[in-house]
Specification:
The protein is of the alpha/beta class. It is built from nine helices and ten strands. It has a six-stranded parallel sheet, with helices on both faces. The protein has a two-stranded parallel sheet with strand order 6-10. The longest helix has 15 residues. It holds the Pfam family NAD_binding_10.
Length: about 250
């Protein structure tokens, strides 16, 4: 039996990774800011981090925050993992972090570099965006009477449970460095994905395609966040929507 620490183990991905590893009979410690007995804020570190990592064979690093602090968190985690003699650090990243100059992507890439230079055995898995994230974005964009979308952008959403399964599999193996990227089953225009969301939630909104400026937008238009040659995911966005929202609702 392997002892594994999952950071961000109460989050969208982390809780599924934890569930999968425990189902396979492994001892799993869940680290998050509020999860006892390993309630640790990785951005500040502290003695609780050393206790969480002590005796651990593998760390699966899922914790991330759009509010910032991921680089500091990674530095604290790597330091604790070194002190504890952890043999394997597995990290979840995003396809395109080295090609799309978005602030959050730059941070993910910086964390990748820290892990690669850590001296630890490491595995990095990059995936396309989760269905959940796309639904959250559409929920916000659908609030006005007109739904504005970045013009000419496609996406390749992937089912988070499938990512959890792959990440757990990698965590249980030896360090492989950069694992093969993982993409959802279909590259779709944002317009078609938005229409699927509107249909599933019973909303009626005209779509407005808005050209944007900037290098990040050009990167998304060029498809640098996609991996069509590695469309290994199986669950479609429509299947996710059906499971989450059920049947169609009256238009609103």
């Amino acid at each position: 039996m392997t002892t594994i620490l999952v950071t961000g183990g109460t989050g969208t991905l982390g809780r599924l990774v934890t569930r999968r590893l425990r189902a396979d009979g492994h001892e799993v410690r869940v680290l998050s800011r509020h999860s006892q007995p390993y309630a640790v804020d990785l951005r500040t570190g502290g003695s609780g981090l050393d206790a969480a990592v002590a005796g651990v064979d593998t760390v699966v690093h899922c914790a991330s925050s759009p509010r910032g602090g991921d680089e500091q968190a990674a530095g604290h985690l790597i330091g604790a993992a070194r002190r504890a003699g952890v043999g394997h650090l597995a990290y979840i990243s995003v396809v395109g972090v080295d090609r799309v100059p978005l602030g959050y992507y730059r941070t993910k890439l910086a964390v990748e570099r820290r892990i690669e230079e850590s001296g630890l055995g490491w595995t990095i898995l990059r995936t396309t965006q989760f269905h959940d994230l796309l639904a959250q974005v559409f929920q916000v964009l659908a609030k006005p009477p007109v739904m504005a979308l970045p013009a000419g952008v496609a996406d390749q959403p992937v089912e988070v449970a499938e990512v959890a399964g792959r990440l757990a599999e990698l965590a249980l193996g030896g360090p492989v460095g950069r694992a093969e990227d993982m993409g959802g089953p279909q590259v779709r225009s944002l317009e078609s994905l938005a229409r699927a969301y509107l249909s599933a939630t019973g909303r009626r909104r005209p779509l407005l395609r808005v050209p944007l400026a900037g290098a990040a937008y050009r990167g998304f238009r060029a498809g640098h966040h996609l991996t069509p040659g590695l469309a290994v995911g199986e669950g479609t966005f429509e299947e996710y929507l059906a499971a989450r929202f059920g049947g169609a609702h009256p238009g609103r």
